[in-house]
C-alpha cells in the first residue's frame, strides 16, 4: 500500500517524506505534512534550513570534558573559569543541562551521559559516557557530584549504579530532590512521589525565623 | 469476522516497557490479565504536572482506564495499586525485577488472556520486594520454571528426553534443543550444544519445579550449583524464546562488576504469610 502510494509521488517528494519519517516522533502523516510544507516554503527559507542541518553535522562536536554538544571544545561552560569547578551535575541529555541552566541556581559544571541505563532495551553503562565521567573525577578537584537523572525507574537505576561506582572515590554524591511539582493536586499524586515529598519535607519559613531569633 | 472492542474499559496492568513518544507523551507496553500484552499512549505523561506520569513508570502495578480509537489506545486514568518501592530503592532487586518483567513480556502475546502469567509476575515482584539477596536468585529460577510451565515449555527433568528411560543417580547432560536431561547413552545423538547436568543440579531443578515459593526461597545452594542451574535455565529460555533476554546483561553487571550487596529487607520477613506470595 505504502509502496503504491510512494510510486505515485514525485521521487524527490517521496525521498523527503521518507527522510522525515526517520525522525523521532514523526509518523507517516506528519512526514507528509512537513514535506508539503517545505514544498510551499520560499526557496530562501528552505536553503537556510538545509544549511542549518549541514552546519550541525559539520561544526558540532562533543565537548572533550563534559560530553555536551558544542561548537568548540572545551565548551563555553567548561571554559568559564568563574564557575564552581568543585561540583559536577550529571544529566542524561544535553537538553537537561539547558533546563538546569535556565534556573540560574547552579554555577557548577556538567557531565552529559547521552542516555540512561535501560536493561530491557539492552542499554548498559558501557553505552553511556560513564567511563569519561570516572576519568574526569580522577583528574579534577571535584568534591560533589549531583546526580540529576530523570525521576523514573531507569533514571533511578542509572543514579544508583553511579552511586555505587563513585563510592570508592570518596566524593560526596547527591541527588535532586523529589516530590510534588508546583500546581499539582495531592489527590492525583502517586504513592512514590508523595512518599518522597514527605521524606524531603522542610520546616516552614516562620519556624526557621523564630528559631534563629 | 470482526470483533468489536469497547470504547472505554478499565483493567489491571503492569508496565513492562516504556519509551518516549512525541513532545511529552509516553508509549507503554502493558501486561494485563484479560488482554495479555497491549500498547497504549499516555498523553503528556512526561510533563512535571501530569496526573498520569507518576503512576505509569516501569514495574508499576496499576489500575488504568483505556480509551480505544482507530489508532493506539490511550490511557485516560491511572491509579497505582502497588509501586514496589522496595525494588526501586535497591539496585540488586531492581535489576531482578526488570528481568522478571522482561521475561513476562517475552512470553506474552497481544489480545490473549494472560491471567496466570500476570498474577505470577505481580506476586513474584511483591515477594522480591522484601527478599534478601541470598534468596533472590532461587526465586528467579523458580519464576523461570513457573513461566516455562505456564506456557507449555517446562523442561523434562524426570526421564531422558530422548529414550525416556528413568535417569540413574549420576551426572547427565542437558540439551535445550531437545528440551531436558539427556542420559549418557543418548548424548552422542545429534550435534546440539550440551551442558553438564550433575546430580545436584538435576535435584535442584526438580525441587524448584515442584516447590512453592516459600520453599524455593528457603533453598540453600552452593555458588557452583547456583551458576550451573542458572546456565541450564538460561540456555532453555534462549532456545524457547529464540533470543536473549536483554536485561540479563544488567543483572550480571550489577551482581558481578559492582558486587552489590543488597540492603536487608525491611518489615516482615518473607514467607511469614503477612503478604500473599506467588501461587506455587
Fold and architecture overview:
- The complex is a heterodimer of chains A (213) and B (280).
- Chain A is α/β, with parallel strands linked by helices and 213 residues long.
- Chain A has helices spanning 2-8, 11-21, 28-40, 43-59, 76-79, 94-103, 130-139, 153-166, 191-199, 205-212; strands at 61-62, 69-70, 87-91, 109-112, 144-147, 172-175.
- In chain A, a hairpin with a 6-residue loop joins strand 1 and strand 2 (69-70).
- Chain A is globular and about 70 Å long.
- In chain A, 23% of the residues are buried.
- The model of chain A has no long low-confidence stretch (mean pLDDT 89).
- Chain B has 2 domains: 8-82, Nucleic acid-binding proteins (OB fold (Dihydrolipoamide Acetyltransferase, E2P)), CATH 2.40.50.140; 85-257, Up-down Bundle (de novo design (two linked rop proteins)), CATH 1.20.1440.120.
- Chain B is built from 8 helices and 8 strands.
- Chain B is elongated, with a radius of gyration of 20 Å.
- Chain B starts with 7 loop residues before the first strand and ends in a 23-residue tail after the last helix.
- In chain B, 42% of the residues are buried.
- Chains A and B meet through helix 8 and helix 9 of A and strand 1, helix 2 and helix 8 of B.
In a few lines, what is going on in this structure?
Chain A is an alpha/beta fold and 213 residues long. Chain A is built from ten helices and six strands, in the order H-H-H-H-E-E-H-E-H-E-H-E-H-E-H-H. In chain A, helix 8 links the parallel strand 5 and strand 6.
Write the layout of secondary structure elements.
The complex is a heterodimer of chains A (213) and B (280).
Chain A: H1 2-8, H2 11-21, H3 28-40, H4 43-59, E1 61-62, E2 69-70, H5 76-79, E3 87-91, H6 94-103, E4 109-112, H7 130-139, E5 144-147, H8 153-166, E6 172-175, H9 191-199, H10 205-212
Parallel strand pairs in A: 3-4, 3-5, 5-6
Antiparallel strand pairs in A: 1-2
Helix pairs in contact in A: 2-3
Chain B: E1 8-21, E2 25-32, E3 36-42, E4 61-67, E5 73-82, H1 85-88, H2 91-107, H3 115-128, H4 133-150, E6 172-175, E7 180-182, E8 195-197, H5 199-210, H6 213-217, H7 223-241, H8 248-257
Parallel strand pairs in B: 3-5
Antiparallel strand pairs in B: 1-2, 1-4, 2-3, 4-5, 6-7, 6-8
Helix pairs in contact in B: 2-3, 2-4, 2-8, 3-4, 4-7, 5-7
Amino acid at each position: 500500500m505504502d509502496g503504491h502510494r510512494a510510486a505515485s509521488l514525485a521521487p524527490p517528494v517521496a525521498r523527503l517524506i521518507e527522510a522525515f519519517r526517520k525522525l523521532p516522533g514523526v509518523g507517516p502523516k506528519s512526514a507528509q505534512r512537513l514535506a508539503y510544507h517545505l514544498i510551499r516554503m520560499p526557496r530562501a527559507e528552505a536553503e537556510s534550513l538545509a544549511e542549518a542541518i549541514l552546519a550541525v553535522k559539520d561544526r558540532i562536536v562533543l565537548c572533550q570534558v563534559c560530553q555536551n554538544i558544542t561548537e568548540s571544545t572545551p565548551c563555553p561552560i567548561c571554559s568559564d573559569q568563574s564557575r564552581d569547578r568543585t561540583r559536577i551535575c550529571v544529566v542524561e541529555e544535553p537538553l537537561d543541562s539547558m533546563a538546569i541552566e535556565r534556573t540560574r541556581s547552579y554555577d557548577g559544571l556538567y557531565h552529559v551521559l547521552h542516555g540512561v541505563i535501560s536493561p530491557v532495551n539492552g542499554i548498559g553503562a558501557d553505552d553511556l559516557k560513564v567511563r569519561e565521567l570516572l576519568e574526569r573525577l580522577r583528574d579534577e578537584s571535584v568534591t560533589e557530584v549531583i546526580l540529576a537523572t530523570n525521576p523514573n525507574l531507569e533514571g533511578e537505576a542509572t543514579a544508583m549504579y553511579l552511586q555505587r561506582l563513585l563510592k570508592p572515590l570518596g566524593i560526596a554524591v547527591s541527588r535532586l530532590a523529589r516530590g510534588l511539582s508546583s500546581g499539582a493536586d495531592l489527590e492525583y499524586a502517586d504513592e512514590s512521589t508523595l512518599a518522597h515529598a514527605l521524606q524531603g519535607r522542610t520546616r516552614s519559613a516562620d519556624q526557621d525565623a523564630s528559631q534563629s531569633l | 469476522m470482526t470483533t468489536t472492542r469497547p470504547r472505554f474499559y478499565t483493567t489491571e496492568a503492569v508496565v513492562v516497557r516504556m519509551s518516549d513518544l512525541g513532545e511529552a507523551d509516553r508509549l507503554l507496553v502493558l501486561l494485563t490479565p484479560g488482554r495479555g500484552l497491549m500498547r497504549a499512549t499516555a498523553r503528556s505523561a512526561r510533563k512535571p504536572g501530569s496526573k498520569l506520569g507518576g503512576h505509569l513508570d516501569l514495574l508499576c502495578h496499576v489500575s488504568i482506564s483505556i480509551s480505544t480509537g482507530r489508532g493506539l489506545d490511550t490511557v485516560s486514568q491511572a491509579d497505582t495499586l502497588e509501586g514496589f518501592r522496595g525494588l526501586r530503592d535497591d539496585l540488586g532487586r531492581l535489576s531482578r525485577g526488570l528481568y522478571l518483567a522482561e521475561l513476562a513480556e517475552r512470553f506474552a502475546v497481544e489480545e490473549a488472556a494472560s491471567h496466570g502469567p500476570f498474577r505470577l509476575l505481580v506476586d513474584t515482584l511483591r515477594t522480591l520486594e522484601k527478599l534478601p539477596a541470598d534468596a533472590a536468585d532461587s526465586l528467579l529460577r523458580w519464576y523461570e520454571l513457573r513461566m516455562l510451565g505456564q506456557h507449555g515449555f517446562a523442561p523434562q527433568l524426570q526421564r531422558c528426553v530422548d529414550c525416556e528411560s528413568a535417569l540413574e543417580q549420576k551426572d547427565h547432560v542437558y540439551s535445550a534443543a531437545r528440551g531436558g536431561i539427556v542420559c549418557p547413552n543418548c548424548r552422542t545423538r545429534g550435534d546440539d550444544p550440551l551442558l553438564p547436568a550433575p546430580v545436584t543440579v538435576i535435584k535442584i531443578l526438580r525441587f524448584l519445579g515442584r516447590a512453592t515459593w516459600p520453599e524455593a526461597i528457603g533453598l540453600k545452594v552452593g555458588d557452583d550449583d547456583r551458576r550451573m542451574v542458572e546456565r541450564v535455565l538460561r540456555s532453555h529460555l534462549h532456545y524457547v524464546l529464540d533470543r536473549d533476554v536483554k536485561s540479563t546483561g544488567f543483572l550480571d553487571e550489577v551482581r558481578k562488576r559492582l558486587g552489590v550487596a543488597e540492603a536487608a529487607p525491611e518489615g516482615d520477613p518473607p514467607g511469614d504469610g503477612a503478604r500473599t506470595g506467588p501461587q506455587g
